[in-house]
C-alpha cells in the first residue's frame, strides 16, 4: 500500500467527492475550499492541505472547477473504474445492499453473494443468485475479485474474513461490529450506524 | 451545540469506544494509546491528544483501564443513556435497520417507523408497526424524539429532512447520498458504503 500520503487525507477525498457531486448536480461550475468546508463542516485550510497531497487543482483566487476536481478525485481514488464486489451474508442487510442502486451506478457492483442458509442459496436477489459459502473461494479467484462486503451476524464475521483473505480479497467493508485481524496488505473499513448516532448524541443534552 | 472541543475529536470517540469494546470482550483490563492506535490504524499521539480534551483517563506509564475508559467515553457521548430514534423509509434498508439488534442493545432503539407506501403502513417489522408519513410530526412531538434515520430513496430525502426538523428532530443519520440543508442547531451525519469503498480502492491498483 502507498503510505506516503496520510491515510486520513485519503479518507476525506470521498467526502469531497460527495460534496462535488452535489454541487455538480445543482449545475454549479466553480467552488472554493471555503464553500466545500461549509458543506462538509470542515475547514478551508484542511481541504486545501488534503488536496495539496494529490496535486494542484485550483488557482489562487479562482477556486476549483467542480467537474474537473470531481473527475480528478475519482481518478485518484480509482473510482472512475468499475469494481467487482463480493457480498457475504444475504440476510436483511445483505438484501438491502443487493438492492442499493447507488453502488453499481457509482462503479461498485456486487457480482456475487454468498450465504450458508440452504433456504437462501439458489434464490435471486436483485441481479445476483445467492451461492453457498463453499463457492466463495473459487468464485473470488476465478473472477479475480479484491473487494468484499461482510454482512453476516457478528459470530461469523471473523471466520468469513479469514476465508475472504485466503481467497485473495484485499479490501473488506465490514458491517459487523467485530474487529477483524487481517494481514498488512489487506484493508478493513467498518461501518456501523451506532458510531454516527453516538457522535451526534454527544451534542444532545439529557432531559 | 458545544463547539469548544473540535468536532473531529468528538467524531473519533465512538471509534475508541468500539476498540475498547473489543478489548473488553476479550477480557483485557489495561490498554495503551499505542495499542488503541494499532487497532484503529491511528497514532498514539492522536489518541492521547483527542482524549485530553475530555479529561485525564490514564496515568503515565500504566496505560488506561479498559472498562473505566469505556464507561467514561460512553458517558461523554451520552451513549450510556437509552435514546429513542425514528426511522423514515421502510424499504429494504429500513427493514435491515429495524432488524439490527446491535442498535437497541447499545442504547439506540427505533421506536417508530414511517413510510408513504400504503402496502407497508400497518405492517409490523421487528418490534415496530409502520405508520403513515403523515403521523410523523405528532409521533415525534408526543414522544419528544430528537434522533432520526432517513432511509428513503434520494428524491424524497430533502422533503423528509424538512419534515423531521419541523417536528423537532435535532440529529439525523442520512443513508441517502443527498446533501441536506438543515438549521444550525440540527446535526446531520451521512453514511454510504461507496465512501468506504472509494477510500479502499485508492490503495488497489488497476490491473
Task: Explain what this protein looks like in three dimensions.
The structure is a homodimer of 207-residue chains. Chain A is of the alpha/beta class. Chain A folds into two domains: 7-76, Orthogonal Bundle (Arc Repressor Mutant, subunit A), CATH 1.10.10; 83-194, 3-Layer(aba) Sandwich (Rossmann fold). In chain A, 43% of the residues lie in helices and 19% in strands. Chain A has helices spanning 7-25, 33-40, 44-52, 66-76, 92-98, 101-105, 136-143, 154-167, 193-201; strands at 30-31, 58-59, 63-65, 83-88, 108-115, 124-125, 128-132, 147-150, 171-174, 187-190. In chain A, strands 6-7-5-4-8-9-10 form a seven-stranded mixed β-sheet. In chain A, strands 1-3-2 form a three-stranded antiparallel β-sheet. In chain A, helix 1 (7-25) packs antiparallel against helix 4, helix 2 crosses helix 3 (44-52) and helix 7 packs across helix 8 (154-167). The longest helix of chain A is centred in the first third of the chain and has 19 residues, at 7-25. Chains A and B meet through helix 1, helix 5, strand 10 and helix 9 of A and helix 1, helix 5, strand 10 and helix 9 of B.
